[in-house]
């Protein structure tokens, strides 16, 4: 059976990249009839320091974003990762399946640890192993994410295949399909066309947050880094111009049209004309989501109920799977 699974880290303010690369896709998949499991990745968030009080608030904020972008708790299971113990249990077993050499190749660890590898948490290093546990615990068939997670999803498949093979249980864990081909699978920073838009980027100017008001969005788009040339007429000509390509891609994804259609309208025009149109579109597209998030966060009771019910439903599926894994591995059971 089909099962979609994905998560978003409770590591700070959600941004347009999360919305276009992840949230919008989840809603499309749910509305297409796929059963969806969507968690708030709080275990992943603490791979870098999180203030405990903020972590709770950020967890609720991600849940609010799920609901505000159209996910329906009657159809989709929305839960905090740490509330389902099986994630941590399976992650340990997978830590003993995954090879150091595999993790050494993960580019996200290199990017996030930067020059201070020896001062990074061990959790940041084994993060993709926990991610494999998140996915395989539910025997997910499809995993929608942004393009930045592609390498981690390949690792998940490697871990599944090695577990099935080492323990002689062919097909026990199905190999999940990565879905990284959305309308905007890699939204770039507004300050740097070579870096992806990220929650953890220290510059708030680099991203449009889901909680930004209209004035902030307009100001950030106006100041977004660009080259001085007018927009080209063809999509191919965008390849050499990462900042222009990013803004055109964002426009297309927000308007649900192709980049060709965007250039048919704006090709030959300067950013002086394009940026205000993009800002208006961003404000109009985000405003309903933002307003609903604010409403939900004003009284967390509704969110907390969704998270509690989601955790119970998720555990009902995950706990028997981890029990079976323990049996396969040979752990003592009464
Ligand atoms: P952090 O900097 O803390 O890692 P993040 O912005 O990368 O935060 P995540 O919680 O790690 O956000 O990712 C949540 C989802 O959003 C994932 O599916 C990820 O692939 C997607 N995503 C993150 N950044 C982008 C982006 N710039 N463009 C498209 N999708 C993105
Ligand atoms: Mg990330």
From TrEMBL:
One Gene Ontology cellular component: cytosol
Compartments it resides in: Cytoplasm
MF terms in GO: ATP binding; tryptophan-tRNA ligase activity
Binding site for ATP: 9-11, 17-18, 146-148, 187, 196-200
Family annotation (Pfam families): tRNA-synt_1b
Catalytic activity: tRNA(Trp) + L-tryptophan + ATP = L-tryptophyl-tRNA(Trp) + AMP + diphosphate + H(+)
Name assigned to this protein: Tryptophan--tRNA ligase
Organism: Brevundimonas basaltis
Gene designation per UniProt: trpS
